[in-house]
Write a structure and sequence with these properties.
By secondary structure, this protein is mainly α. It is 80% helix and 0% strand. The chain contains ten helices and no strands. The protein has helices at residues 2-20, 25-34, 40-64, 70-94, 99-140, 153-169, 175-184, 190-214, 220-240, 246-265. The longest helix is centred in the middle third of the chain and has 42 residues, at 99-140.
């Protein structure tokens, strides 16, 4: 029965990701910890590879539509990949299953979920306005380079923060990443911001996930069951996205993520 429950959980998360674009890590990791009793280090490690394999397909599709700004992806990876490797080194020193590492991961996960809840609620309230402003700015400044950040250091610094969060918690490359991109690259059209967010998450989660696997923090049968559910869920969600009240769903998700974040911090 547990196998079917994992497949259903993967399907539900995939469906929500397809409907709202909210990162799977912010949903799947708390589900694995709270509902299935998976240890935090195993939940994070498994979910990182779950995210990497899931987002690979999205990246290929977006790249074929020329919606991936690879220059932006490279700038973010310059900060996130080294930060992920440093975080993996810290986990290796501590021992991923140690009480100290577990406490760091659950507390960091709690704060990451609160940030994701705030970013999700912000997108639910201001998504349309941000989209119109971004597109208007892109048209007005079409002679400039839309992949130029507000300051050269911002993508590296923000990428490092997200890389650390993702490695410790598997959360951060979804709603938080899009919000950061909107602020750092104000001239970049929204479809390319989404493309950058999905594409740079692939090498980040792959590096972090393989690092967790080398530490023994990946449950491979569980990963296969989650992917068996998530892939059709994402397919269905992407086709129902225009028929659902996205703002209502995002608002409800932000409350759920905030509840999970507070619960993890208070454990």
């Amino acid at each position: 029965m547990h196998e079917l429950a994992f497949v259903f959980a993967g399907f539900a998360v995939g469906l929500i990701v397809g409907l709202t674009g909210v990162g799977g890590g912010s949903l799947m990791t708390p589900i694995l910890i709270f509902f299935f009793g998976i240890k935090p280090h195993m939940a994070v490690g498994t979910d990182l590879l779950f995210a990497a394999f899931t987002k690979m397909g999205g990246t290929v599709s977006l790249a074929r539509q020329r919606l991936v700004p690879w220059k932006v992806v490279g700038q973010l990876c310059a900060g996130s990949i080294p930060a992920a490797l440093l975080a993996l080194w810290a986990l290796q020193v501590l021992g991923p299953a140690s009480g100290t590492a577990q406490r760091i991961m659950t507390t960091t996960l709690g704060f990451a979920l609160l940030l994701t809840a705030a970013a999700t609620l912000y997108k639910a309230v201001a998504f349309s306005a941000q989209r119109q402003a971004a597109e208007a700015a892109a048209r007005k400044n079409h002679v400039g380079d839309p992949t130029r950040p507000r300051h050269w250091s911002l993508p590296i610094l923000m990428g490092a923060v997200i890389g650390t969060l993702v490695t410790f918690t598997s959360v951060g490359a979804g709603a938080i990443g899009v919000t950061v991109l909107l602020l750092v690259y104000p001239m970049l059209p929204l479809p390319r911001i989404i493309g950058a967010d999905i594409a740079y998450a692939v090498p980040l989660t792959l590096v972090a996930g393989l690092g967790h696997a080398s530490l023994g923090s990946v449950d491979w049968p569980l990963l296969a069951q989650l992917l068996a559910g998530s892939l059709p869920g994402i397919w269905l969600g992407s086709r129902l996205v225009t028929r659902t009240p996205e703002r209502l769903i995002r608002s409800a998700l932000s409350l759920l993520l905030a509840w999970a974040g507070f619960k993890l911090i208070l454990i």
